[in-house]
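Example 3.2
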Amino acid sequence: MPINRHPAWGEFVKAFNTIARHRHRYEVFRDFVTMSAAALHNAIRKDEKLEAEYLTIATRYKRDELSEFSELLAKLVLLLETEPRDVLGPLYMELELGNTNTGQFFTPHEVSELMARVTYGDELKTLDKPFITVCEPACGAGGMVLAFVNVMLSHGHNPAQRLWVQAQDIDRTAALMCYLQMALWHIPGVVIVGNTLAMEAREVWYTPAHHLGFWHHRLEREWGRAESHSSDSDDSSAIQEEPQPVPINPQNRDTTRPLILSIPKGQSSFDF
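Structure, written as tokens:
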């Protein structure tokens, strides 16, 4: 069934259009996404600045409007539970919130899944690594990531155990849309707000699954083992230095976990 025919789709659109009618629709959507993402983040790892931002946004709305935000989040969960797919992106476009001046467009789920199946379907049939990584440098709302998760599930792999994602987008709202959907689907990884080409990281958001699955330690252990194996097996006459993981310590964000920007040899990386 097309996602826009799901009963919760019409309920979401109708409810959204009744919240704070005096405010611009983009502002309301941005606030809904930001508050929802902050709530999920702080449920696992408290960030005082995110909490302050959450409370500041809450002061702009009446109590009943904040309750309607909770209802919107519940409807989003209903829409996401059918399968891993981008829901917020299509909603964003249907509500006509896209920035046409910058060519903002969210890739349809069918196209994203086709790309994932054609490119990596065969490789996932014989997955022989403890886990794989996905690097999405222009993630938008996370459509490509969720499509890849769907393909993994179709091959019998549990993404919560065998996938780690690094997603990034220059648009904060889009990046938080990705974070929200990744968090609800319990996908381990990190979402970065910043310009990928400039190696910029204004904000770093680790998903709840990253913390709950102890992925910081899994990454360090597995990549350290891969680098050690690579050093032992290389011919001494052809030794090449591998780029080391580059940690970023963005201000005002979780700096207790290193952010990996390069993938050591021996660990797959999928760049959409």
